């Protein structure tokens, strides 16, 4: 065990921040760490938009579903998969890159690149005793988010990252059993074993919620997942992504 | 600056490893750190397959394009976006989750979840003085990779992660200028400024290659990108992803 592993294992999302903005140096360190992450074939297919304008933050919070911590934090980053600059590079270098950047493969590459960078940003922030929360809610209304942040085509805002000085203590949420997530040499398909593991995990999660809510919430992981997934959300995504010129071919 | 930031900023990919396998404890620490990453709505939409079988590693290396370090390393992880268990959960809980898990939105969620976990794994490994290299090459022939690792539908291998004791010293690769990647309040669209930044960066990359190859390689970032993107690669991806039941609607 070392300091970094300790940091990784102790992650918890923070949803309440002090009213204290990050310094320019803190922001630059976080972005530099994001950029230091691995990138597929050196493609660097992302952009990061820091939002400081109060009115824009208020609007973003509203679009993301009304969470106060989108508006109230030390800094708010929006991580975007970005193949816009690569289209520009195609013109600069006089090469037809369009089929490539419209492919599902490069869509995946851009998403992965962006997420690797973001996770580095999250860890950098946490290492400075800041708290973080990923905000998938910005995908509720991407058309409006893109207009608000003047985002061009081939750029897809994936999630926000709220960062700041924690104003609450939160608990670590137990993860799936390691042997449910981790396989060796082949994907283990054993329905009986899987169900046993899930039931064991359900018990852990149920205890976690009961304790955390003083008996008010009784929920299992599988029921939580099934309820969430039964509801079809953001079903406009396929059309939207295609419209902005990604995942087309 | 703290120890973790130092670690993040000093990342470089390692492509030559000592012949010394990771211990069970090292592997478990790496996977536990992966699991500790943020996950969208707690969905945990990934699986990790460790490959230890020599013949399977040899085959994977071949499929990935013949890189020796896929075969020769301390351990080889395959990170998979996974909505297979969520389909199973739907049946367990008697809820129709299929439209949800076939949506582009959940495809994105699964990719992002997997990448966040993988980056935690990479950092955990590096914090233990191990080296890492992401292997996108496994996407060359996913049909074969899925067969080799007996991967069911709704599970998409995204990349490998080779981990081990470094047998080479590599250099940090300079990233795009921070003000090219980072915007405030709106996506800055200024073609002239962008081109200036790219030309400045081209000079940095050109110097980097010249020095590293003792004058043998003279290349700029934009020409490298345009050449790579002009070539259409893995164009089967859209059909493949659809076939396994993802990114369909």
From TrEMBL, chains A, B:
CDD domains for the chain: NfsA-like (cd02146)
Keywords, in A-Z order: Flavoprotein, FMN, NADP, Oxidoreductase
Domain Nitroreductase as annotated: residue spans: 10-165
Pfam families in the cross-refs: Nitroreductase
PANTHER family: NADPH-DEPENDENT OXIDOREDUCTASE (PTHR43425:SF3), OXYGEN-INSENSITIVE NADPH NITROREDUCTASE (PTHR43425)
Similarity comment: Belongs to the flavin oxidoreductase frp family.
The protein's name in its UniProt record: Oxygen-insensitive NADPH nitroreductase
Species of origin: Cytobacillus mangrovibacter
Gene that specifies this protein: nfsA
